[in-house]
Design goal:
The protein has 142 residues and is mainly alpha-helical. The chain is built from five helices and no strands. The chain has helices at 2-47, 54-67, 70-84, 87-120, 124-133. Helix 1 (2-47) packs across helix 5 and helix 2 (54-67) runs antiparallel to helix 4 (87-120).
Amino acid sequence: AASSAASDSERKTKLGRVKEALDQYEKKLEGHGGFEDEQLFKFFQECVQTEGDIIATNLEDLNNQHKDTEFATAVRTAIEAAVSGGTAELAALVDAAKKYHEHQLEHMRQEERTLVGPWLGLSEEKYNKYRSYVKFPYSFMY
């Protein structure tokens, strides 16, 4: 019984670390998403247009993805279930984390497909205008 209590305590501690890591990641994403929505995407929406305005359509979708908490919520729910659950709950946590990871990768691929080409094609004048959209602390990085 003591061994079981120790393993339960260890499990809760480890899953607590998983939750802390998710919290840190989400906080970082919130800041980065804010930069994209309020500065980067705003510039492209206001100053760069493409045939069929594919940028505007994709940026609207990316903005909506920033507000979507479905995948992070699924991971949080799975963490809670895994604290007192068994192997099946741990497997569900791994599955939820994998789906969240894939969602994030697809989001980044969509950002790259939408923005990299037009960004690299900015004239010097447009690039200088872009720089006026980027605020501290992002102005040092982007």
